[in-house]
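Quick one - inputs below.
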Amino acid sequence: EVQLVESGGGLVQPGGSLRLSCAASGFTFSSYSMNWVRQAPGKGLEWVSYISSSSSTIYYADSVKGRFTISRDNAKNSLYLQMNSLRDEDTAVYYCARVNSGGLLTPWGQGTLVTVSS
Amino acid sequence: DIQMTQSPSTLSASVGDRVTITCRASQSISSWLAWYQQKPGKAPKLLIYKASSLESGVPSRFSGSGSGTEFTLTISSLQPDDFATYYCQQYNSILGTFGQGTKVEIK
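Output:
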């Protein structure tokens, strides 16, 4: 069964840092690009970052560029999101999602909640 | 960036109703349009891809249509399990922007 499990969320003060992880299983992780997508409480979905299978191509949303860093370790079947200089508006559930060959996001992990508050 | 606009934001309907949700792209995305269903506290689930192709395991009462900039998601006969929020997403570009969502509520 294809599975993605996020971890690392929690409460952090504004200006702080947090590292999210996404553990993949049930498929050949190194063959797939991956995304992070977030959802603020009661709001819609916002694409955050993309990384290709070999890490050669990386993109960020303007809202996180310069503060967040996406990375992956194919040997550990893991995806990461290093979040620095966190702001109140970064409060959200963060999902990792596999990118299929056509660009579709499926499946998604269950999400991990990041709360930025003093 | 490509902007996606969904309408309506909220839709009240009864079991058995035919429901239609519209999604418009700010520029042509050919048929690179997906629909996702999200229930409270859960991750989004892919329903339809390439505008009109049904994901495996998704009930046939769901259908999608459109191309270019105008797309629709139709539920032919609303079932209790279908009360949820629906999002469109363009994947014409890697920056896969989402619509703002349509919440389907019980009337």
